[in-house]
Amino acid sequence: MDADVTDSAGTPADPDRPAGDTPQGGSQEEPKAKDSPEGPEAEPDASRSKTSDAASPDADSDGDGGGGKDGGETGTGPGTGPGTASGEDVSREGDGDDNGNGNGNGNNDGKRNGVQTWADQPKAAIAAAARHRRRWLRWTALTASFLVLVAAGVGWWMYQKLDGNITTDTGTAAELKAYEKERPTPVVMDAQNILLIGSDSRAGDNREYGRDDGGSQRSDTTILLHLAADRKSATAVSLPRDLMVEIPGCRTSDGEKSRERFAQFNSAFELGGTACTIRTVERLTGIRVDHHMVVDFNGFKDMVDAVDGVAICLKQPISDKDARLDLPAGRQTLNGEKALGYVRARKTLGDGSDTERMERQQKFLGALVNKMQSNGVLLNPTRLYPVLDAATKSLTTDPGLDSLRDLYDLVRSMRDVPTDQVQFLTVPRQPYRQDPNRDELVEPDAGKLFKQLREDKPVAVVPADELKDGKPDEAGSESPTPTPTYSGSSAADDLCEQ
What we know:
The protein is an alpha+beta fold.
């Protein structure tokens, strides 16, 4: 007779399901033996026993074999049943005994018909994901390390290149040290005064802009830049090249010492170079010059090109052969070459005076500063590099500013200065009484301006037409300490709204 077998890992077969059609993962139930001694009454117990044994958490891979026939025969045959270790199917063989009990040994290989069970599929997926993640992390770490090394190498190369561009002026420092006793004493800590000198030497690459007088230098533009101690304002004061001043005795290029003289301001640079110019400025203003920078024509051009040009507006067209300038009226963006011609032109613009040219230079420099700040150049190393490269190539400075680190610290200290507090003005001046082609200071206005800067106190600037009688005024005169106001402009001004 056939033995009755149920799937110990599942529920009994559905009586409504056709014979042979079992659920996936279940065993097919076979008909009971008609001559079983137990009879139909024993069926529930047998079913419960097998199901209970199979479902027991203590069950292992030793299953029960098929019982002997008629309960009295000793039968030998394969015992078939599911092992319950980890809920997996097993195969085993067992021997029946006289009592119809068989012992089978199952081989638990975790598979059924060579396919992973539902329990092992997530484990395999997790293990594969972990291996993939470890490989990804290793490659990511290697790639990041490589990029860091490359960036460090490029950064070091860029730093060395910019640092090497700067020319250090040790001669001026040595010359000034010899006259230390006569130099002004700094009044306010942390405030800085930097003398910016625009050289119009015709030597070398600058020969194309005029006759070369043996490589002689001229200070075409001189600006005293005062940085407030709190770095909330910056004031740039232009000193006219034709201003008549006292020039101290200076050491000349041939090693001789010149005599003191009352002469045109820019002759100090031609006579004794930067050191003589600094000593002249200090004697004129009483302000200690902390640093100096000399920039030639090419440096200015390259800086304008580095910020993709500067926009201006012209009320009328310009045609100046000497300045190599030919521009239509209206709004336009000047590249470096045209910008240089624009700030140098004099005879064909306005009244042809040097004073009006200085005002044009101030407004253009303000527009350049505004372009750099509004475009985020000072905060973006990628865009700042071309500007620094252009500036350093044509820059000569004292040992205190001769490294990229020093220049970066200076630029960083100024990046938060509001554009309306970056102010440009010309020292109060008027035609010289003995020669209308020269200038002289207007007193006491000039002295008051120098005192404000020396003591790191604020000054204000407004357009010339807003001043009373064309002379400096004091804003808020009701205040016991009014802020002196001068004719000038700021970096926030739009050149097309002038």
